Amino acid sequence: MQNTQRKLDHLVSVRGLAAWLVVFYHSILLLQVAMPQLPRPVIGLIAHGYLAVDFFFVLSGFIIFINYHANFFLNFRHNALTFYWNRFSRIYPVHAFMLSAYLLLALAFLYASASRTLPPGYTAEAFWQSLVLVHAWTGEPTWWNVPSWSISAEWFVYLLFPFIAIFFHRFIRHLAAHLLLALSIFIAVYSAYTFQGYESLGAATFKMALIRAFLEFSLGAIAGSLFIHHHAFLKKNRVATGLLALVLCIGVYYIDIPNYATVPFMCFLLVAFLSVDNSSVSKILSNKFLVYLGEISYSTYMVHYFVYDVFKAGWVQDPRQVDAAPLLASFMAVLALSMLMHKTLEIPAQQYLRTGLFKHFRTLVGSRS
Fold first, then answer.
1. Under the phi-then-psi rule, with left for phi > 0, alpha for psi from -120 to 50, and beta for the rest, what region is 248?
2. Alpha-carbon span 118 to 96, nearest angstrom
3. How far is CA 344 from each of CA 19, 52, 148, 299, 331, rounded to the nearest angstrom?
4. How far, in Å, CA of 40 to CA of 361, rounded?
5. Which residues contact 35 (CB under 8 A, 6 or more apart)?
6. pTM
7. What is the pLDDT of residues 200-215, one digit of tens each?
């Protein structure tokens, strides 16, 4: 799988670019004030930055499927628990660290601010829900590090993934089955949002979190299964897939239909296209710096809102008067903290939890048996 990962570096890069689109999206009001000269198409792109989360869900389903799909047919219990531990070690250390940072920020609001009060939503109940990664399961807004709602939603899907993999193994083998399941999921997404009367994917971020994550992750799993079992089909239809993804991407801006009718399909096609693309587009995206942005994208995603909150509290007296220099400095702080967290926390903690702690646990169990 390491060779496959090297071939898919361009997908890693796109994940990094999507993470930065989310960063800019959360600062869009400040950006419009500080940099009124930004072209309208750029502002339009940033205004749709919340849809990058849909790409994250689809890409996550793809990557996890191609890496773990064959692990659950023998010794299901052991391999499922190993999978859960691997995913926990991947997401939880950074999540816990940022939750601790927000706890310190809350204490600063409580004891050092002029109001001596906590922001709305900073409740003990919400904190404990975030601590155990179920805060997106409640349907209520997330306050303790807002972007972590999607991590909680993904954790929900991770718990289901071993069963998803077995379902694919037993029932989704032929090409027609893949395409029929993909069509069924598109219909399910459209029906779920239409039935609730929502106008877009962002209209009910928290209430629809688990449905959105599960269905889009499943689309990624279909793309992953096509990549493994029907690679030739993807290669043969690569150009048509890429063009259709581009048309849908443009349509998000110019076609007046709900984005839940186009964006999941667009993300599915984009991942399917990039998984087999070897054109100049993928070569550009395989640039080492862009790949590195993708490698640190989880830390970027998790730290940026904290920087945004601190920046607003400390430097923004009037949101109608924001200078460009400190705002750009906040983006540089996000990049620097992402690099630092990735190197000193994310990777070491993941390695320790997967190797050192497991090894110690096995030694301890062995000594008692």
1. alpha
2. 20
3. 20, 26, 20, 11, 20
4. 56
5. 324, 327
6. 0.93
7. 999 889 999 999 999 9
